[in-house]
Every structure is written in C-alpha cells, then in structure tokens.
Write a structure and sequence with these properties.
By secondary structure, the chain is α+β, with helices and mostly antiparallel strands. It folds into two domains: about 140 residues, Diaminopimelate Epimerase, Chain A, domain 1 (Roll); about 130 residues, Diaminopimelate Epimerase, Chain A, domain 1 (Roll), CATH 3.10.310.10. The protein is built from five helices and 18 strands. It has an 18-stranded mixed β-sheet that branches. β8 and β9 form a beta hairpin. The relative contact order is 0.17. Bound molecules: ligand LBFN2T5F. The site of the ligand N[C@@H](CCC[C@H](N)C(=O)O)C(=O)O has 19 residues, from α3 and α4. It comes from Nocardioides eburneus.
C-alpha cells in the first residue's frame, strides 16, 4: 500500500518574517495550493510554521502574460491561505533560494502579482545583503485605524499591496497599540480588500521603528512592503522626499526581527535592503 505523499520544502526568513518555500516549477506539484494546505503548512504547532508560503513556479506555467519579464513567478500566500500581491521580505528569500539552487544569477528578475521586481545580491554566505527594487510607491491619501478606544490618522500607501501607516508615540505592547492580536479596525471603503497596518515611531533623523499587523498573517516580526510604506509616509511627513531634496533618500527602519534600509530614489522607485536566510530543508506530508 502506498504511504502518504511527501513534498520537499525549505524554510527561510527575512528579518524574522518567515516562509515555507515550495518548488513547483510547472505548477503541477501543488495544484491550486488550497488555503487549507497553506494554513496547515504555516501552523506553528501542527505544521512547519510560517507567516506565509512562497511557491516557486515558472512564470510561463503560472502567469504566461508576464513570461517575457522573468523566468520565475513568486506565488505568495499569507498564513491564513489568502493571496497577496507582494511580499518584500519574501521576494529576497525567494531570490536567495533561486541563487542557491542554481536557478538564477544576480540580478534576479522575479514576476509577482504586483509586477516585475528585481533583486540584487551583495556579498556571499550568511552576510549577503539583498536589495529588491520594489517599484513606485503610491501615496493614496488619509484614513484612520482604530484599536479599542484609540484611533490614529493613517496614510494609505500602496506598495503593490495595501498599507495604512499610523504614527504613534509608543510601540509598547502594553500601551495603546497593544498586543496586536486582532486586526486594527480600518476604513472598509478605503481598503476593500483589507490592509496591512504599520504603527511607526520616529527614532531619529531618517530612522524609524515599526510594528505591523499583516493582513492574513497577524502581527509578524517584520514586513518588507510595510517598511517601504512606513519610510514613504515618514519622508512625506518630514518633507524629506527625493522630489524635495533632489537626492535619493535612505531611512533605517527597525522592526522587531531586525533592521531594514529603504531608499526612495529620484526616479521614484523604492529599494528595500535587508537579509534573506534559508534555515532548513526537508520533506513534508502536509
Ligand atoms: N510580509 C510581507 C507582506 C505579505 C503580504 C501581506 N500580508 C498582504 O496581505 O498584503 C512583506 O514582507 O512585505
């Protein structure tokens, strides 16, 4: 009698935003990657445990309309099984996987639901640093987020996926932001597909820190697109954008899981720099 089917996987993270990586070149191994399978893989007690899944699939097999742009497509899923357009920490881990598997060379073009992203690597081994060109940020206006009886103004920044960036006085989980167990209440008209919410404090000149509640994953240790959104909102609030200064502007963004650097360039692109680490590989029957 045949035993249960096993599938190879890897586990990786970027500033402790962690992912299960599944290689599925032709899109035939994992089919439609049903939400319940993603939830099982991401379960931190009964599964491998992760904030999301990165399925590595050939663009021609999954998104043929983008096949001219990149050989590989990042099929990203949140821990609850939902689909997102983009993942900034994930795209660096995805690039590291392709490079280590000998499936690409740097710079690595990667097709995503938010269009083409290109990842460049500097250095080798554990000290390697990855920079993802995240494209043009869109600052779409103001909204509000609410937790219990606290509310904050928030800036809607689109990084391919939706973000609400709220500046707060204190990130302490015992303070008004709290433990971020439930999604902050947000304006459903402004964010019809849900939203990632970043709570941001200023630490110094061109230096911010944030916590994030991610759509579909809850509070995570880091969010790359969220760090980009926080930087853009902070630079706008400080009148410190490349459009004003005439130069590229770089901010340090501290997250609970590490440090990211975000550069907003004079040609209106956002570059996200940080680590990408592969920590394990194995076989799963999930
Ligand atoms: N952690 C990611 C973002 C993942 C997707 C997000 N939860 C969404 O639903 O848009 C990042 O590093 O950007």
């Amino acid at each position: 009698m045949a035993g249960p089917t096993s599938y190879p996987f890897l586990k990786g993270h970027g500033t402790e935003n962690d992912f299960v990586v599944l290689l599925d070149p032709d899109g035939t191994v994992h089919g439609d990657l049903a939400p319940e399978r993603v939830r099982a893989l991401c379960d931190r007690r009964a599964g491998i445990g992760a904030d999301g899944v990165l399925r590595v699939v050939r663009t021609i097999a999954y998104a043929p309309e983008q096949a001219g742009e990149a050989e590989w497509f990042m099929d990203y899923r949140n821990a609850d099984g939902s689909v997102s357009e983009m993942c900034g920490n994930g795209v660096r881990v995805f690039a590291r996987f392709l490079l280590e598997a000998g499936l690409a060379t740097s710079p690595v073009p990667i097709a995503t639901r938010a269009g083409l992203k290109t990842v460049t690597v500097d250095g080798t081994g554990p000290m390697a640093v990855f920079t993802a060109d995240m494209g043009q940020p869109k600052v779409l206006g103001a909204s509000q987020v609410t937790i219990e009886h606290h509310f904050w103004q928030a800036t809607h920044v689109d990084m391919g996926n939706p973000h609400a960036v709220a500046f707060v006085d204190d990130l302490d989980p015992h303070g008004p932001v709290g433990p971020l167990v439930d999604p902050p209440v947000h304006d459903e008209d402004e964010y019809p597909d849900g939203v990632n919410v970043e709570f941001v404090v200023t630490r110094g000149e061109r230096h911010v820190a944030m916590r994030v509640h991610e759509r579909g994953s809850g509070e995570t240790r880091s969010c790359g697109t969220g760090a980009c959104a926080a930087m853009v909102a902070a630079a706008e609030a400080a009148a410190d954008t490349p459009a004003i200064t005439g130069q590229d502007v770089t901010y340090r963004v501290d997250v609970p899981g590490g440090v990211l650097a975000v550069t907003w360039t004079t040609d209106d692109r956002v570059l996200l720099t940080g680590p990408a680490v592969l920590v394990a590989e194995g076989e799963t029957q999930l």
